[in-house]
Amino acid sequence: MYQLKKTTLNYGLIPLLALFFSNLIAQDKAYFQQEVAYKIEVELDDVNHFLTGDIEIKYTNNSTDTLSYLYFHLWPNAYKNQQTAFAKQLLNKDRLTFHFSKKEDRGFIDQLEFSCNGAALKWEEDFENPDIAQLNLPQAIAPGETVTIKTPFRVKIPGDFSRLAHIDQAYMLCQWYPKPAVYDRDGWHPMPYLENGEFYSEFGSFDVSITLPENYVVGSTGDLQTESEKEFLEQKVAASKKIDYESLYFQEHPFPPSSEKKKTIRYTAEKVHDFAWFADKRYHVQKSNVELKSGRSIETYTMFTNGEAILWNKKALEYTNRAIEFYSEIVGEYPYESVTVVQGNYEGQDMEYPMITVIGRSMFPILLENVIIHEVGHNWFYGILGSNERDHPWMDEGWNTYLDARYMTAQYKLNVNAEYWVYLEQAKKYEDEAIESRSQDLSDANYYVCAYAKPTLAFRYLQEYLGVEELDRILKKYYETWKFKHPSPADLRAVFKAESTKDLDWFFDNVINSTKHIDYASTGHSCCNKHNKASITIKNKGQVPAPVSLSALDKENNVLEKIWIGPLALGADTTVEMTEKNAVAYKIDAEEEMPEINRNNNEIRNYGLFKKGAPIKVKFLDDFRTSAKPRINIMPLLGFNLYDGLMIGAAAYNLPIPEPEWEYTVLPYFSTFTLSATGMGELTHHSYIKKHRFSQGLSFKTFHKRLKRYTEERPYAYKERFYKITPFLELKLAKTSDISKERHLFRFENAFILEEQGQVSGSRDSAGVTTYSFLGKETTWRSTHRLSHYYTNQQAQTPINLLTTLEYANYDDGLDGREHYLKLSLEANVKFMYSALWAVDLRIFTGGFLMHSDRRFGQFPLLLIAGNRTDYHYDDHIMGRQETENALAQQISLREGGFKTAIEPIIGAGASNTFIFAMNLTSDIPLKLPFRTKFFKLKPFLDIGYHYITNVTVTNPSFADGLMLSGGFMLDILDGAAGIYLPLFGTDTIENKVKSFVGTAFYRRITFSFNLSKMKPRKLVEEYG
């Protein structure tokens, strides 16, 4: 074995140029496909989890080219180490299990000794991809010639990471044998194994013999040839009929010991391009058959364990039969003799292979049905129509999802149209990619959008435009023309061009091959001409010259009349006449089948104050949109702080999924304590310039910050309120690529803060008694300007967030003067994953005043410890802003220095008007604690900091005087949204302040925090998707 030079498959300029020129040449080449005939003998070692065997491949060169070498896929090597393309993709998908796996749990293929026609040949493993090999032939294969390639091989079956896997002694044998890459009119297609991005293999025949302990139940591609195994399966089928599956619902299903005696079972298959098999000693087996219209009978099998037996019992067979009938009717008759559906609760999840499919956990009958329909349907779109799934995933996933959605709609009258909302979320943010995109170039979100959701919308749109019968007729023609072949997008387009009388260039050029958005609007309306007709004007405001439907609707939204218009040129409009009788509205795409970017401008009504646009709906406790109609969602809320008491209110909001142009959240409250209105809210407008999001908005909040109660000594009471109004601008830069984890956000905000301050005077009489009187309240204002840059790189192993902030403030010093400062700070948060579950979190903060007009006495210092009384700019939700003695005095904010101890906020106690530096460490505990969950984590913490002392009461401070340290344990709640902290030790500077502030009572050391900004809907969407 040798390694190819690094440049062999380097995905750079040379391969792109080669691909460009090969495509030019390929345009003139006639279609051909190579033919392979496999004979494989393999044995399973279920103790050490190995496959050993021999493979013989008869390879026929049907091209007009002479081949001096062959590319082979050795896909078990994708599991060999953490540097493979598969391993890197899993990291990009935030899946760390394989990265931190043990060597003995990974997989590989070895003991390869390739020969061609009996002569040993040299072969080379690709430098970057050990799962791709080049076989250098001793003699070139001439056009029309057949050669025999042989090799022994051994496969180490990996653990539960992807499709090829074992869970104990349950085996999923997928992509397990050495196979030649496809050579077609575009040349060679060597490709590494990937999780996102499926396969492309040559059609041929298989003759596979499998040896394993005889009590294993096997489900496989192909037709079973071994009579004894047929009898064994019949016995399993008979036993299955006697089982009470409801009694198995909560029962574990342990693996029985493997038989000492072994069996060899043989399968054959024709006109397939892959071979997969599944083996489990626990499988229950059920059998049925389905009669096709041609009279052929197809055998169907289901194999499942106790896990979801109550769902699978009989129903899984019924769903399988329905799938075969449905696809045979719509697309074309199923050509093979059997279909098997097996259960496999592993990371490979639901996956299709010729004649067999594996299904993961389903939980509900309707989900199991949907998945079986989809996966069995892949026998047509992938199995029989063998398109290149890596380069054109929509050609199988798109057609198949469109068809399984048709099935579910017909079966259950479902009209959720979830594909539209998934597409719209990406499209509204200009983050969608073209349907015609390569799998490896797409993020998880866009892989689903481009391969599944958007093509489903596109084909549904085409169905409405052509008519369902015409679309089905053309689809049947496509199937008959290209079954058992490798159709390309150009081949699909050619069939539609030849079969349809309508010009569909707009569809393939713009809907399939671009990210251009469709948007038609109803712009004008006049009614009641002499022919009792209404005139409606519609305009193409989008980027696609597409056809559009217009419908007249009655008051129940029933379609009275429907016409198709266009395609209209970009920016063009047209006026059409429609029936006026009984019509109350006219709507573009009334059935909502078009993948339109904006449906809010589709409707125009005969009556009403606002005739254009969809009417606004008010919904109570609504959380997800299911139509294009704009809505205001209402939800009751309760709030609390010490000075407003219990607050009763509501939230009025629109959800940020999909992203609206105008985004708002308004939370008005009524304080039951002060009997006054309080609340907060935010209004944001989003627009896009070349995929960069520009946002402008305004936030506000007002609550009470202090309450002075009546006493005999001070016979008056008053309350102090604050108001904060913050206009802001944001620029969120577009990602450099769809799979990039890096983001940049720039924000400028100008916070105007008004604060009420009670004014009190005191006079002392001759007896020395002081009498206090309330003079009223004075309102002061200040402004704070912040310019921030937020950088994030959410790579799975070491995610990092950086926040750089320049802050300028102008404020009243309380002595009839104005002060100002300019502050620069940097906050870095880095998570170091040391296993798939556990991490060490490091936070670093440093800040300093570049300018300060009152450096010695300034009111807004940098803080190592931010307590309840130091939220100077009202950024946080503080329940007791002036408290010093009760439990609310223990509230802290994890700002600036991020220390978790509560002390009296006096200048000198970790505060500086010059400079501070802090480092905060927390760590998961690598133990399976009984109360540890994803949302509640017990962690140790350590805070280390330094502040340059500017307190005028401290003379000649040393460096050591500025050092502070504290540590203990914390309970992290909802990933930083809240926390409870128990500081156990600290430097003398801190410990002395703690004792003077809270005393020696142990429980008074406990502090807590809230970070409600992490729970904002938009922040959750942008951080977690």
Automatic annotation (TrEMBL):
Domain Peptidase M1 membrane alanine aminopeptidase: 317-509
Keywords of this entry: Aminopeptidase, Hydrolase, Metal-binding, Protease, Signal, Zinc
Keyword Glycosyltransferase attributed: no
InterPro entries the UniProt entry points to: M1_LTA4H (IPR034015), Peptidase_M1_dom (IPR014782), Peptidase_M4/M1_CTD_sf (IPR027268)
GO molecular function, one term: zinc ion binding
A Pfam family per the record: Peptidase_M1
Range of residues in the leader sequence: 1-26
Keyword Zinc attributed: yes
Essential cofactor(s): Zn(2+)
SUPFAM superfamilies linked to this entry: Metalloproteases ('zincins'), catalytic domain
Binding site for Zn(2+): 374, 378, 397
Catalytic residues (UniProt): 375, 452
Domain of life: Bacteria
Cofactor-binding details, from the entry: Binds 1 zinc ion per subunit.
PANTHER family, alphabetized: LEUKOTRIENE A-4 HYDROLASE (PTHR45726:SF3)
Protein name (database record): Zn-dependent aminopeptidase
Species per Swiss-Prot/TrEMBL record: uncultured Aureispira sp
